[in-house]
Amino acid sequence: MAKKNANGAGTIRQRSDGRWEARYTVGFDTGTGKQIQKSVYGKTQKEVRQKLAQVTAEIDKGAYTEPSKMTVASWLRIWLSEYTGNVKPFTLRAYQDRINLHVIPALGAVKLSSLSAPMVQKFINGLGKEHNGKKALAPKTIKNIHGVLHKALLQAVLLLYQFLVVLHGGDVFCQ
User: What pTM, to 2 d.p., does this model score?
Assistant: First the structure.
């Protein structure tokens, strides 16, 4: 049975599959006036209680942002169209080819928020190996692909940093 908490603090319950779920309110739909609820899951009640406490503290501080559902492919397309305006046409075409032929097929479906350094390293390492009848790429080609991916991901990090500066009034490392 779910324990009743303070208004907006969320509820915790054990699901039929054995996992624990905490539901919390992130706001209200302006059209319908209904609550917008989200969930966090975990293996133990303690784990879920900690996740819920963290999320509700962020909501109370006004620092909560819903995890992004943007994929690597979506971000790369935005980056190509919005952040490469100062490069020459041949360079832009090379960026597009590297992204469309190599990066998007391998990493495009991954959520940007879930992309990790080991995933990128595995991708880069795989470019130098023969697979599915395709020859291994030359080291210079791999370096170029890595460079384009690096530039695009660096831009995403810079945008996040700028957002945090605005959110925290210039004190990015505040608690």
Answer: 0.61
